[in-house]
Amino acid sequence: MPSQSGTHPAHILQQNKISELWTRLVLSLVPIDDLKTAREQVVEIYSMAYLDIGEFQEAFSDHSNPELRDWAVEPYGRIPDYDPHETVTSLLALPEKILGWLSKILTVAAVVAGLASVRWLYSLAMDGLHLIGVVEASIPLTAIAAGIVYLWFLYADTLVHQTLAEELRVGQVGVQTRRRAEIVAHGVWNRSLLGQTGLFLVGFFYILNALPELAVVGRLFDDPTSYYTQLITRNFDLFYQSDGLIDALRNLIQKEV
Q: Residue 235 — very low, low, confident or very high, per pLDDT cuts 50/70/90?
């Protein structure tokens, strides 16, 4: 029996199986332990930022450690459901939804008008349905195919983000410490997963950690991770005053160059 929402249980079960298979595939391909190591490096930077920036400390000065722990893990349950492309996919799906709604309304109007012998309304509804058919038929198949492929890539990227974010989030066990800097740092980290900043930084530090294993890089650059960590910690004020990660990186490049 169909659910009240109109989605058949078998369809939901199939979607869950596909998501589960995708999750297994992602986790089998991604070095999750190395990413967790990179996560701890990012969290340590957040912790040092808390200790270095007075305004950062003042923002949490009125809260006790138990309150900070609750604040730190508040996003925990929402992280696996975060969709970084929700705005784009909603906009792309909007025209199809509008045409679908209009088609249903005009179909009902045509049936009712036919039964009630209201010819003008029947004619208007049929003209509207014909117009919708013309609009849908005029869309090139290549455009439809490109849209489907693009939406699939967005869907796949969302599943990757949700899978990795679920593995890298920090729960109550991770904030059982008396160090306020660590508690706040983990809270900032969890919130960075409700965006793309967190995974970007983890990927960046994962690459830095892997670089010395390359023979050419290893001879020229012994510890790129420490270099960039020191570069960031020397410029906390710049990152704190910037409008987002991209703006901070641009300002840092301008300063260093």
A: confident
